[in-house]
Amino acid sequence: MLSPLPEEPSLSVMAARSHLNDILKKEHKILFRKYFTRRYQSAWAALCLVLILTVAFVFPPIRALASSFLGLFRVQRIAVVEFNPASARRDQHAAHSTGFRAPDVQACDSR
Questions:
Q1: Residue 84 and residue 26: Cα distance in Å, rounded?
Q2: Domain ranges for the chain
Q3: Deepest in the core among 14, 18, 79, 110, taking most CB within 10 A?
C-alpha cells in the first residue's frame, strides 16, 4: 500500500470520499447547466412536444379526434373545369362591348 509523502496531509477514507463527492457534484452542475442553457431551450421544447404527441396518439380517442380534424382538409370531390384562352378573350371583348366594367378596388387607409 502506498503511504502519503511526508509533505502531503493524510486524509481519512471518509474525508476523501466526501471530497470526491463534492467534485462530482460540481461537475454534475456544470454539465446540467451546459445542456439546459438558452442555446438548447428550443431543442428541449421540441423534444418535449414530440414526446407528448407520441404518448397522446397512443390513445384511440385522441387518434379519432386527429383523424376527424384532418378530414376537414381532405378533398371530397373534384370538379374538372375546361379553360380555353380563345373563348376567354372573346368573352372579355364581349363584356367590354356591352359596357360591363369590373369594379375598381381601392385600398382603404386604416389610420
A1: 76
A2: 13-97
A3: 18
